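User: quick one
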Amino acid sequence: MADERAGLLPGTLEMLVLRTLLLEPMHGWGLAHRIQLLSRDVFNVTQGSLYPALVRMRRRGWVRTSWRATEKNRMARYYEITAAGRRRLEEECASWRRASLAVNDVIGPKWAVEDL
Amino acid sequence: MSALSDLGERLRALLMRRREERELAAELRFHVESETELLRGSGMSEDEARRRSLIALGGVERVKEEVREARGTGPLEDGVGDFAYALRTLRRSAGFTTVAVLTLAVGIGGTTAVFSAVDAVLLQPLPYQEPGRLVRLYQPDSSNLDERAYVTPVHFLAYRSRTESFEAMAAMRTYSESGADVGSGEGARRIRLLPVSADYFDVVRVHPELGRGFQRQDERGDGTGDPAYTGAATVVLSHRLWRELLAGDRSAIGRSLSMNGRPFTIAGVMPQGYVDPVAGEVDAWVPLDLGPGLLPRNATNHHLTVIARLRPAASLAQAQAELDVLGAALDREYPAAVGRHARLFPLQGEVVGSSRLALELMLGAVGLVLVLVCVNVANLLLVRGSARAREFAVRTALGADRARLVRQMLVESVTLALAGGVAGIAVARLAMAAIVALGAGRIPRLASLTLDVRLLAFSLTVATLAGLLSGLAPALRAARTQPGDVLREEGGATTGGGRRGRLRESLAVAQLALAFVLLVGAGLLLASFQRLHEVQLGFRTDGVWTFELNLPSARYDTSARARFYEDFARRVETLPGVRAAGGISRLPATGMYHLWGTVARTGPLAAEEGRYNEANHRIVSGDYFRAVGIPLLEGRLFDARDDAGVPDRVLVSRALALRLFPGVSAVGQRVAGGRRESEIVGVVGDIAVDNEGRASPHVYHSHRQWAGERLWTLTQVVATTGSAGTPLPQLRRVLADLDPGLVAYRPMPLVDAVGSGAAVRLFTLRMVVTFAAVALALAALGLFGVLSYGVKLRSREFGIRMALGAERGAISRMVLRQGFAMAAVGIGIGFMAALALSKLMTSLLFEVSPLDPRVLLGAAGFLAVVAAVAAYLPARRATAADPRSTLQAQ
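Assistant: Done. Structure below.
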């Protein structure tokens, strides 16, 4: 489990999922592709690791699920963000922005190793 | 996201687990199909697209595992899931489950029942304060230090006053049943008395709850005592007697109680439930008359039971060393008693005595059965594990966690073990009822046997351990297996041999060896029991009834006693159905008693004055010899001529006649013993002194001549023609006619009176035979299982062989040969084990060598037959199948 998360900071996968679900309810496979797309392929997320994360998030009440027909008329489990999920996303995003600003301040503008 | 809703979700997940699993599978199927479709759109082949999409997902089984973990019901759910899974798989193979559960039930049930018997009899400490410091003293002959010889009053007084290692030491007279008649008329009853020295209550550390015990000055009788060995006329009552006789009146202390027509002062009442460590239930305690201890001639008069309590600082070895030093000094003071030094033994072991060995043997047998059960279940699981190798290989290949597979296997075997444990408790209850019924009244403390919580815990622990142990090997084996190997083997391999086969075979061989050991043990006990029944006791027991009859000295003087026993016998002989009646001071075959030095005064050995021969001296009345069928070999029996007015006359047994008067007739010769010199008037047949048939020289005195010597309570023997049933009602009527104050005490058939030592042996025998039968069944089952599984694995090989023209007979011979080879190795190993264990058995056997060839051969033959049957069925099946169908099936 550790290796496929190696490309992600802890907790980021959940943030990405919630952010993606803000757009519309989605099934697992769709989520996997959308995250890949939105993150401009930076994060190499093994598709399988999505499902345990979804289960954890549903347990915490951030998403709810329902079985619906897809456009191709096949049954799939759709995930939808809840109010608690939105709150959580806001908190996460705020703290993420704070943290990333702080980190950016420390490392400063773009530099090369030779400059130091 | 409260803790409550989290918990709710967990519970929901737990309850909805099945649906969850279905939905997860559907979700992942949808994922893989969508991905495959996408990839195919880019021109990939169906197979390749599917492969890539599975890789992208990371394996279906693996994702499932991770999702299950993420559901967060964690170990609980895993446990429940594994448990449910185990139940499902066990239900699916009902045959396997039934055999395994039954095997475990028998093993665990037997173990629990026997553990509880051992616990009740052996492990529970004596119910006295600091029981570890209680010891018993014996005074064995130096030639046989393990002899449990009683102590003389002279030596007892020396031990008590001249040692430092003991906090307290007490002598008691358990040597024979001593009793007293209390009350009179209708209310007359006989009670059990225990004469004890003053420090008795300090040794056991139980003192009367009312009143007091005895003082040292109570240890001197005034010579009018009744029984003769009681000191001062004072008595301590048991709680029960106090309640029954005096209605629990607390003011009874100091009052007078009439025993044997003589007034005794009630000194105290013992606490409720107090039981003497040696004599058991006692109704009343009286002071022991230690006056005889002051007379040097009593230095060879062994009749006291001595118990003592060690000082906290003194070890058993120190106390023994002190007694050894004292013994050397006493040798110089009493030359007649040289070499009879005191030996100490912990009291606990002495109380349990001979039952201990029997119980330990049983524990050993149970241990063997339990090992056998584990081996058998392991074998079953192993066979099953091999059969499921494909299932595991496939699941491993699909990414299932190996640790989880092992856990599942373990959960399965523990589930099995617990089921076996529950069934085993039921078996244990039955077995314990049987054990109590078998040994009740003969094995000490067995009656108090109950199933308790600790036993339940023990049983379940045994069950779980058995499950874990027998499940571990197959589980690890399954986990270690390379899936590819198994799958390849499925396709190509044709012979079911290899490493796994060898492990199975060695387990089956181990089973056979264990069964052989148990069979030999059972066979040996059976043989020795048979011998025991063939023992020549030297007298007849059929139709003979016995009871004790005490004549209180207050109402019967010497001549009245002498007359009464004779009159009573004559009156009884007039009853219909009675052949003969008489009395004796100690029943035959109930052990050594009144073992007195006896020497020849005339004849070839008369000159050897110092030669010390011990003989059992007995006092007889009425027609004793005819009543128990002891034959007269020479001379005459006692009759009315042999009364107190003439010089002493004795009858001797053949063994004594041969020993003291070799080569000449004993009739008319003179012997000295019991402080009298007597003329031999007749020689009678030898009788056994114990129930193992050991003959011992006897000297018989006539009660008419000895009534004045002391107060004899003669045990009456009444021989009936046997058809009329018990003569007791008639006997009681005769007794009431003669004297309504007399009691027929402890009436029983003679066979019961002499047979109680055999009870322990019979008890052990039945247990061991049962265990052997169980072991045999388990071993047969194990062999059968291994062989038939081997046949199943090799059915393809057999098919090919037959297709290539091999005869069916040759193939079944091959299977049979395999079975016999295993049986031979098992019996060989079992034989070695039986040799190694033979020493343990020796003391339980009677006139049978632990290496009795009949028993060893019998056990081997029996096991071979069972092995043949267990091998025959699979052999037949091996050839029954049509080769074509076997080959096509694979």
